[in-house]
Task: inverse folding
């Protein structure tokens, strides 16, 4: 059964469309990420799920119940959700346990039950020792764990996470990411996770919905998304691929600007005509009888190096073994694996 | 669409009383004043050029004095390592916390031509506080904090690296200060000066005290309006309305000037984080600087207050200065008199009521401002403008609008009469309208610091919109609302200008009692009451300091 369904949802702010006809099913117990660059509508989508925004049209169902749609506008407090905000949103005037107890107090549970459930929720996030502390005494990672406990304590139908790791430093981010995965395994809560970090999405999700300009470009399991991107945007955003517009003629790809052409490896041949070339940096190599291009920069990555060539109105990135070359040198570049998308 | 609907309903509920009790009365006054009612309107001004000229001249004098004193003082207090600069800052900001009328009383005790203490020490006729120069002097001093605070804010924002760059280029420390920091802070200092001008132009108590009994009498717009209202009749009120209109027109001019100065200054100040600028070391000049600032502070702030205290303890003003002439009789007489107690009770009640209204309507303004985004600026402007309108004008507008009973008929059957004339309700309205800005500004600034996600988190946790507001942002707004309440309470409890025009016969408040004792009865009794005012202000400021410190700790 679907825990959550969005059907053809539209939302605009004034004249600016933010979400344009979005449909998505999230199954019971599943973790689905909404992944995309800033301004793609992912946070707005999450806020519409929470009831903090109302769609202009379309239907949202949670657990089979319509919460937003024609004539239906269920306020957030009646949707039975939990939400974790990027800014933590831990109330500074309440102690840790008072923060976590809040959703239970609103449900008028007996005091003893509130106390025991708060204790349990704090144990989930390993904060039992800090129960009586005030938020200003906690670190960012601890605050976000308080927010997590508060969102989970009442047993929400769905947990919504709005870039919960973005305000944390790298090490903490890793730690909290693992914690979310553990909690999910233990509680089996359905989760919708908004992020702009493809690493986070790939590591955590059952499925990822890649969003661009208010629409979902592809929904798939992480590996499939990475291996078989459905659109150039997904390839570029998730796999970090080079995306070059141009056309195919005589077994070679010519950039739209006409400043370079690359012979295509066997198996990638498409019909002649306008198209978009998608090629991962590691699927290019320097040397051989490649196309000669001027190097603009070389970035040392440790295990490898990234070489950048200004081509087709963008920077073509090539990752390969570190070599002693200088910016300005002209080097041969060869594609050995690529994918073509018809222009559109 | 229910939420949108509720938003507009809220706006209506907030706007209706403001419209009815402030905007429409002032608009009607403006119409009357400009002659739209078929009256002679502004042509009355021809016969009042003296008052208009005095207002402009005195205000300009006060503004110049505040700028000349305030510029070096703000540099010394906020940019150098002057000893005791914290204490001096507190003392130098007292003049705007205590009503100007009381400073006028202090200077009257010191420098009235014959009986003033200074004249008795230095020989009769050394000083004369009566007349335009004396009024400008007292107004300038009580406006000094406006320039100082503007200077403090600007100096805090000037990037210390700019001054250091001047040093590296070869400028001496003093030269670097005068050629980089000072010019950058000047626009702010000047906008503070414009505020002093405006404050002096709308001041009533000081020109009344030091102008009406001068020979020849010095009349300004506010005191003329008062005289004309006392004169009464259609002619008197029409002329008063014309003068009030002229006075009101000064406000937008001054606000435009402030805005222009402010925006030209903002460009050049560093907008970055508050930098802890290193205080400028005074070196060997530290001692002399301390002495100069100490003497200036003593003469300008402590001396007038001391003079009032002395007057309150003297058997009679003008008596010989000797220990045996001192008595507590006035204190027990004034403080225990039923008239004083009644006025105190009334004032405290009115001030508490007005303070409550200011907080409530101010908070509503802040919430609406946030809810309406673009329209929000309009809401803020509506909440803040009465603060800039001279008290005399606000009072006159209410007096004219509610001089007759207003009869409302609902559903053809139910009629009710709004009879506000000659009731304390009119005072409550005047206080709440005038000081609404304190509530609106304080809550808007506090609300802007609070992330909307705090309330959203409460909503998702299961709280309805009202419950979420009460549980999440409201407790965090409490310090700001406390500050707004105390400020409004102090302002209302010590208010004189609007009170003397609006107070109904037989129900005096503290401000009118002080005014009457000083103008008609005996200066000693007035001095006792003035001391009580000062004590009230000091207590209030201490509460504010405490709230401020606790607010910082909570963060």
Result:
């Amino acid at each position: 059964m679907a825990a959550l369904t969005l059907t053809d949802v539209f939302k605009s702010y004034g004249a600016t469309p933010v979400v344009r006809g979005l449909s998505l099913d999230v199954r019971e117990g599943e973790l689905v990420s909404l992944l995309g660059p800033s301004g793609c509508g992912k946070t707005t989508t999450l806020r519409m799920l929470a009831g903090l925004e109302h769609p202009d049209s379309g239907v949202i169902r949670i657990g089979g119940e319509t919460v937003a749609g024609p004539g239906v506008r269920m306020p957030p407090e009646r949707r039975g959700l939990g939400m974790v905000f990027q800014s933590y949103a831990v109330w500074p005037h309440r102690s840790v346990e008072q923060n976590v107890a809040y959703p239970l107090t609103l449900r008028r549970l007996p005091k003893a039950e509130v106390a025991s459930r708060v204790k349990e929720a704090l144990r989930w996030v390993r904060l039992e020792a800090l129960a009586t502390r005030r938020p200003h005494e906690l670190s960012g990672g601890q605050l976000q764990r308080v927010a997590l406990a508060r969102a989970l304590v009442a047993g929400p139908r769905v947990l919504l996470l709005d870039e919960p790791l973005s305000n944390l430093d790298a090490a903490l981010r890793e730690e909290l990411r693992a914690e979310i995965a553990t909690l999910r395994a233990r509680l089996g809560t359905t989760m919708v996770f908004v992020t702009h970090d493809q690493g986070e999405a790939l590591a955590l999700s059952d499925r990822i919905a890649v969003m661009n300009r208010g629409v979902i470009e592809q929904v798939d399991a992480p590996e499939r998304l990475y291996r078989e991107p459905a659109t150039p945007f997904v390839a570029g955003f998730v796999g970090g691929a080079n995306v070059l517009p141009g056309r195919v003629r005589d077994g070679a790809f010519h950039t739209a600007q006409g400043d370079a052409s690359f012979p295509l490896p066997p198996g990638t041949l498409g019909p002649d005509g306008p198209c978009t070339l998608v090629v991962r940096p590691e699927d290019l190599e320097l040397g051989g009888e490649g196309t000669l291009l001027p190097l603009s920069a070389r970035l040392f990555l440790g295990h490898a190096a990234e070489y950048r060539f200004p081509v087709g109105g963008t920077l073509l990135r090539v990752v390969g073994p570190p070599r002693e070359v200088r910016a300005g040198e002209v080097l041969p570049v060869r594609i050995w694996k690529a994918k073509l998308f018809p222009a559109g | 669409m229910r939420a949108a609907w509720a938003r507009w309903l809220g706006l209506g509920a907030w706007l209706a009383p403001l419209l009815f009790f402030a905007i429409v009365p002032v608009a009607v006054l403006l119409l009357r004043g400009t002659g739209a009612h078929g009256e002679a309107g502004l042509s009355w001004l021809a016969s009042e050029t003296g008052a208009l000229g005095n207002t402009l001249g005195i205000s300009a004098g006060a503004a110049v004095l505040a700028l000349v004193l305030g510029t070096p003082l703000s540099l010394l207090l906020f940019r150098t390592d002057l000893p005791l600069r914290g204490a001096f800052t507190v003392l130098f900001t007292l003049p705007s916390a205590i009503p100007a009328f009381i400073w006028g009383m202090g200077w009257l005790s010191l420098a009235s031509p014959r009986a003033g203490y200074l004249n008795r020490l230095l020989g009769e006729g050394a000083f004369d506080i009566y007349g335009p120069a004396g009024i400008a002097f007292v107004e300038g001093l009580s406006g000094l904090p406006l320039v100082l605070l503007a200077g403090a804010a600007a100096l805090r924002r000037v990037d210390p690296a700019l001054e250091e760059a001047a040093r590296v280029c070869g400028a001496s420390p003093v030269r670097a200060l005068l050629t980089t920091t000072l010019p950058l802070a000047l626009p702010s200092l000047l906008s503070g000066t414009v505020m002093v001008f405006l404050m002096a132009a709308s001041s009533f108590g000081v020109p009344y005290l030091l102008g009406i009994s001068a020979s020849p009498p010095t009349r300004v717009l506010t005191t003329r309006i008062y005289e004309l209202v006392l004169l009464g009749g259609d002619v008197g009120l029409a002329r008063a309305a014309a003068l009030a209109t002229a006075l009101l027109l000064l406000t937008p001019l001054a606000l435009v000037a402030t805005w222009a100065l402010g925006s030209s200054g903002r460009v050049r100040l560093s907008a970055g984080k508050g930098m802890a600028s290193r205080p400028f070391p005074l070196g060997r000049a530290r001692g002399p600087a301390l002495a100069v600032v100490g003497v200036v502070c003593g003469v300008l702030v402590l001396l007038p207050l001391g003079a009032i205290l002395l007057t309150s303890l003297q058997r009679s003003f003008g008596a010989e200065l000797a220990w045996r002439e001192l008595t507590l009789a006035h204190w027990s007489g004034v403080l225990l008199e039923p008239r004083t107690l009644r006025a105190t009770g009334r004032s405290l009640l009115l001030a508490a009521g007005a303070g409550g209204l200011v907080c409530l309507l101010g908070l509503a303004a802040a919430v609406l401002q946030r809810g309406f985004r673009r329209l929000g600026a309009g809401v803020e402007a509506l909440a803040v403008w009465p603060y800039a309108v001279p008290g005399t004008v606000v009072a006159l507008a209410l007096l004219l609008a509610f001089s007759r009973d207003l009869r409302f008929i609902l559903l053809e059957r139910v009629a009710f009469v709004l009879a506000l004339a000659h009731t304390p309700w009119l005072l409550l309205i005047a206080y709440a309208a005038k000081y609404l800005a304190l509530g609106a500004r304080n809550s808007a600034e506090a609300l802007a610091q609070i992330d909307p996600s705090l309330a959203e988190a409460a909503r998702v946790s299961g709280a309805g919109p009202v419950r979420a507001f009460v549980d999440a942002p409201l407790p965090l707004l409490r310090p700001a609302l406390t500050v707004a309440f105390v400020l409004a309470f102090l302002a209302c409890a010590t208010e004189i200008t609007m009170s003397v025009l609006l107070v109904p016969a037989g129900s005096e408040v503290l401000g009118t009692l002080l005014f009457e004792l000083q103008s008609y009865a005996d200066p000693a009794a007035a001095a006792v009451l003035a001391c009580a005012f000062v004590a009230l202000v000091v207590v209030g400021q201490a509460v504010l300091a405490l709230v401020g410190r606790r607010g910082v700790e909570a963060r």
In short: Residues 88 and 144 of chain A are 5 Å apart (CA to CA). Residues 2-233 of chain A form a domain with the Rossmann fold fold (CATH 3.40.50.300). The helical segments of chain A are 42-50, 96-106, 111-124, 140-152, 170-187, 198-204, 222-227, 232-239.
